[in-house]
Amino acid sequence: MLRIATWNINSVRLRAPMVRRFLDEAKPDVLCLQEIKCRNGEFPEKAFRDAGYKYMHVVGQKGWHGVAIVSKLKLEPLAAPKLCPREEARVAAARIAGIEIHNLYVPAGADIPDPTLNPKFKHKLDVLDRMKRDYKKRTAPTILVGDLNVAPGEFDVWSHKQLLNVVSHTPPETTRLEAAREAGRFVDLARLHHPDPEKLFTWWSYRSPDWTKNNRGRRLDHIWASDDIAPASQAAAFHIHTPCRSWERPSDHVPVVAGFKL
Questions:
Q1: The CATH number of the domain where 56 resides is what?
Q2: Residue 82 sits in which domain range?
Q3: Distance, CA of 74 to chain centre
Q4: How many CA atoms lie within 13 A of 148 on its CB side?
Q5: What DSSP letter does each residue of 113-164 carry, written as one string?
Q6: Burial per residue of 101-114, b for 16 or more beta-carbon CB atoms within 10 angstroms, e otherwise
Q7: Can you tell me the distance from the alpha carbon of 18 to that of 247, in angstroms, rounded to the nearest whole number?
Q8: How far apart are CA 8 and CA 65, in angstroms?
Q9: What is the per-residue pLDDT for 99?
Q10: Number of separate helices (H) and strands (E) present in the chain
Q11: 47, 15 contact by CB (below 8 A)
């Protein structure tokens, strides 16, 4: 069984003890982190080595963004697709156990869902368009994970009707994400194992004083598998680790784990 986890950690140095707790409890073979908020040399490598994850591929950046892949298994860093026109640290790729692992952090897009008025939203749409362009050329077995910052379906948000004009669930975003998924011949494992109309969330806003009270979440964090390896995904091994949102000083995202019988 190959177990892969993804988590927008919102500062890996601040939350290193939380990550260690998750690794001890969930025991994934591979953990993909987004929004690590540090440069390569600042990544807390010792904490991961002490936890048994001695192989790492870090794509850092000063201040913001940044992604990393840590693994118990040997990894081979790969050239990542050039998805970000601003060349921010948003993509890391590695080969592990013969499979390409792509770890993505798609821009959030700010608050105004209009690319003519909001350059950050245009940037987000550009990244999603590049995903379609580049993954259409995919040939190797691939698992794509990360904070894609889009809740694609009606049951991936607390209120489809109220969020249709809210960034992360607008039609320009959801149609582009679906086009990228179809172009790359990927299977959305969350919906493979938990079909509609089950509601699935991985993110709850910090603005809510009690996120559990109204459960106004969105499914922004995803694990996709290319159609040649998706059948190896095990339903019993797919988990959204919701309790992590209640840990002390949590990220606003929670980890997602998928397991593959290869």
A1: 3.60.10.10
A2: 2-260
A3: 21
A4: 26
A5: --TTT-HHHHHHHHHHHHHHHHHTT--S-EEEEEE-----SGGGBS-HHHHT
A6: bbbbbbbbbeeebe
A7: 8
A8: 10
A9: 98
A10: 7, 14
A11: no
DSSP code string of 174-218: HHHHHHHHHHTTEEEHHHHHS-TTS----EE-TTSS-HHHH--EE
> What are the Cα distances from residue 169, in Å, to 70, 165, 196, 219, 235?
30, 7, 16, 10, 26
Tell the burial category of 2 from Cβ atoms under 10 Å away from its Cβ (0-12, 13-18, 19+).
buried
**CB atoms inside a 10 Å sphere around CB 154:** 16
The whole-number mean pLDDT for each consecutive block of 10 residues of the chain, a chain of 262 residues, reads: 97 96 98 97 96 98 94 98 96 98 98 98 98 97 98 98 98 98 98 98 90 93 98 97 95 98 90
Q: Which amino acid is at 167?
A: V
Tokens 């582009």 label which residue? 176
Angle between helices 119-135 and 171-183 (to 10 degrees): 20
Phi-psi region of 249 (alpha: psi -120 to 50; beta: other; left: phi over 0): left
**Count of domains in the chain?**
1
Q: Which two tokens stand for residue 150?
A: 């889009």
pLDDT for position 207 = 86
**3 state DSSP class of 45:** helix
Predicted local distance difference test score (pLDDT) of residue 66:
98
Instruction: Check residue 32 and give its pLDDT.
Output: 98
Helix (H, G, I), strand (E, B) or coil at 243: helix
pTM: 0.97
Nearest by Cα to 66 from 95, 32, 97, 94 = 32
Between CA 32 and CA 9 the distance in angstroms is 10
Can you give the pLDDT at residue 85?
96
Residue 250 in tokens: 């949590």
